[in-house]
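Quick one: co-fold with pyridoxal-5'-phosphate.
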Amino acid sequence: MRAKPMAAPRTELPPTAGLPLRWSDFAPGAAAPLAPQLARLLELDDGAATLTCSGTAALVLALSALGRDSARRDVIVPAYTCPLVAIAVAHCGLNLRLCDTRPGHFEMDPDALAALCGPDTLAIVPAHLGGRLADLGAPVRLARAVGARVIEDAAQALGARHADGTPAGAAGDLGILSLAAGKGLSIFEGGALIAHDPALRARIAELAPQVLPRSLRWEARRCIELIGYALLYGPRGLRWVYGAPLRRALRRGDEVAAAQDEFSLRIPLHRVGGWRRAIGARAAPRLPAFLDAARQRALARSAQLRGIEGVQVLGDRRGERGTWPTLTLLFADPAARDAALARLWGAGLGVSWPFVRALPDYAYLRGTVASAPMPNAADFAARVLAVGNSEWLDDAAFARIAQVLQESCRQPRG
Ligand SMILES: *Cc1c(COP(=O)(O)O)cnc(C)c1O
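Sure, here it is.
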């Protein structure tokens, strides 16, 4: 799908709703420690969370902790998820086992998952995407049956709740959170590993200094990037740091780069410094109210899109309370999705294509992910589209998006 050349818009809305930083977050002075604050957001005791330099690093730490005490080597991940998940498994020298999704969803198909589970299964890594929750029922049950662990990937769902009330990230044996730019609360790059079991916590505490050593070079770079993020995260600044590279990639027809799905195979692993931790800690108390406001916007706008035939807005199942960094849309017809993306992606309205491929279909991951048909994951990738739910998306801009979605579904196609 090659988009038409497009003029640069005057403003650029973010593709996801990230919590904007304030200058007061940078003020000197003491701040409550960040990791215990994250643990309390998940209604856990203060010792449950370990701060890491990214969600990917949290997964590396989780897999290292589990792998240390086990001869099991298989890690099962959904075929449609963040490529960093596959890169982390490869980094740890473990066997990546892909589970196709169930039709029309990003969730692992329970039958496919059952067929993959066995005595070599170390961990299953179900992922919540775009704030929508994956059902953990089958992963937890199957993991228990074979003696494996569940690592809940809540990188895109900090603040969400499962139907039984358990916060996302706290429902598995281990949970990973991301504090990356655009993923809600951000210290530009950061994350956390959640653990319940005391033995696992001890293992993590022992491994963390080895897996995440101090690095002045990385931390200095992240501090500068965090200042840039605070300065530029808004409709004007994002034109330069997000919109311009996006439109260049679209002009080249490079969807993987446009979606920022191309990650380095070398994972930065280092300790997060005190300055960035304090900034995250000062911003964190604003997160619940921020998520509530995003939810109100999203529910109203989901209702507005409900009338468009051929587009489904993914929502919560009974009892669930997801978060709303985006509205995640699933088109009935991939050609209609492509038509909508061709007009909206790169138009400055915060519309994007979340992950553009099933994991085996990324050319750059060929040495990392074994080739295998994952038809449902590929089909989901071909029909999904995300509308950023930032506070800057006003009613007029949203009406324009809705109009294009409607026209894309109506267009006759041969
Ligand atoms: C972003 C993301 C990760 C990795 O988190 P980083 O903080 O970017 O390393 C893992 N899983 C999912 C589903 C993600 O979206």
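If it helps, Residues 24-216 form a domain with the Aspartate Aminotransferase; domain 2 fold (CATH 3.40.640.10).
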